[in-house]
Design goal:
single chain, alpha/beta, Rossmann fold, six-stranded antiparallel sheet, 24% strand, binds magnesium ion, binds adenosine-5'-triphosphate, six-stranded mixed sheet
Length: 385
């Protein structure tokens, strides 16, 4: 699929921007702080209904609009998909504020083809993969980064996963509160039975879907990495579920194993005042030539591995959806040497649409296949070049 037209109104540093895009690669070039990342953020917002980087949605509204009687940021897109065109709209409405820019209370309205929708019905209408320079944390950061990688991907792909994830998170919070009350002798341990049952049910969806995704991602990531690194290094990822007594591949015994692990860990959980096993503690191991990439890989190697995970994500989305996702690459060449840059550009893959930003014009002179459309991004205005 691909975005044919994108409209930004009072979104970040864009006041009113209409952008017609083509299939294939598009380069968005501009100096620092001109709005390149903001544009990709807008596209990703339409795919996921959430900003990949804003702390609060009020941040998305252009500062100049904050004194309007009704400050509003609006992003719309016309998207071409294999099953026909679709129009998406996200509106972030804030309360007028003169004071602190970042702390504007805001609410969000979503529409598909002009009809108001809930977030769950909008997520995944447009599928997109976003690579940012922060993705190095996918390799070097904690398990939470890798869980988020899986969650953002699977939420776009499977509504049942999105529901289970939301409920699971709430149940963990409630179970943890109960554990602390039991610890303080304000509640009885058997009150946990209900929450354990809930956790096992939703948790089984999460673990099952993650296991299936990683089984497919493993080969996709290895292949992508082989191309990106010029086949000098081997990337291997594996699911590391926090679930004793269950092995990846045993899909049928999943909720039983979760129930069992919650029961056997009950004393420990009460002592700790929190739930210590389950998919909220999962991880994905990333090995480069057999050793942990988090500890031993260089910055450039970590960056390449992170990009391989994103391209694998895009490949998995294509498999599941039967339609290629839009691939958004923010500053993808930074920190790479010339050889790696060339390998990356020539092996990004054949996506319906690829939007690439860079602060450096010269880096694309060689390498990127096809003839990309080139845009100049300057102070919140995008012009074709
Ligand atoms: P770099 O090359 O450094 O990554 P960039 O072109 O990707 O730069 P962006 O991250 O898109 O830059 O941000 C551009 C500018 O947008 C920033 O200078 C920031 O101050 C501004 N900005 C962010 N939010 C808002 C907002 N709500 N209203 C107005 N301006 C904003
Ligand atoms: Mg940027």
């Amino acid at each position: 699929m691909w975005i044919q037209r994108l409209t930004l109104t009072h979104f970040r540093n864009y006041k009113a921007q209409e952008l017609s895009l083509a299939k294939g690669p598009s380069l968005l070039l501009g100096d620092n702080a001109q709005g390149k990342s903001n544009l990709l953020e807008a596209a990703f917002l339409l795919a996921t209904t959430r900003s990949a980087r804003a702390q609060t949605e009020g941040e998305l509204i252009h500062w100049d609009a904050l004194t309007d009687p009704q400050p509003v940021a609006r992003v719309t897109a016309e998207v071409e998909r294999v099953d026909g065109p679709i129009r998406l709209e996200v509106v972030v409405a804030g309360r007028p504020r003169d004071g602190e820019r970042a702390r504007v209370p805001a609410s969000k309205r979503l529409r598909v083809n002009g009809i108001p929708k809930r977030a769950a019905d909008v997520v995944g209408q447009l599928t997109a993969v976003l690579f940012t320079t922060d993705d190095i944390e996918l390799i070097g950061g904690g398990p939470g980064e890798r869980r988020r990688y899986l969650d953002v991907m699977l939420t776009q792909l499977q509504p049942a996963y999105a529901r289970a994830l939301q409920r699971y998170g709430k149940v963990v919070t409630q179970r943890n509160a109960l554990l602390r009350r039991i610890q303080a002798n304000e509640a009885a341990p058997d009150e946990l039975d209900f929450w354990d049952e809930e956790l096992a049910g939703h948790g089984a969806t999460l673990v099952g879907d993650r296991a299936a995704a990683i089984a497919a991602l493993r080969g996709l990531a290895r292949d992508a990495h082989e191309r990106l690194s010029g086949s000098t290094e081997d990337l291997a990822i594996a699911y590391e579920p926090r679930l004793e007594g269950w092995s990846v591949g045993d899909a049928s015994g999943l909720s039983a194993a979760l129930r069992e692990s919650l029961a056997s860990g009950r004393g420990r959980d009460i002592g700790a005042g929190m739930t210590l096993s389950g998919p909220h503690r999962d991880d994905v191991s990333v090995l480069l030539d057999g050793v942990a990439a988090s500890s031993f890989a260089s910055r450039g190697q970590q960056r390449t591995a992170a990009l391989a995970l994103r391209l694998a994500e895009a490949g998995y989305m294509a498999q599941i959806k039967g339609d290629l996702p839009v691939v958004l690459l923010d500053d993808v060449l930074s920190e790479l040497d010339e050889e790696r840059r060339r390998a990356v550009l020539s092996s990004l893959g054949d996506w319906d649409q690829l939007l690439i930003t860079s602060a450096d014009n010269d880096r694309f002179d060689e390498g990127l296949p096809g003839s990309p459309a080139v845009f100049r991004v300057e102070a919140g205005t995008i012009t074709p070049r």
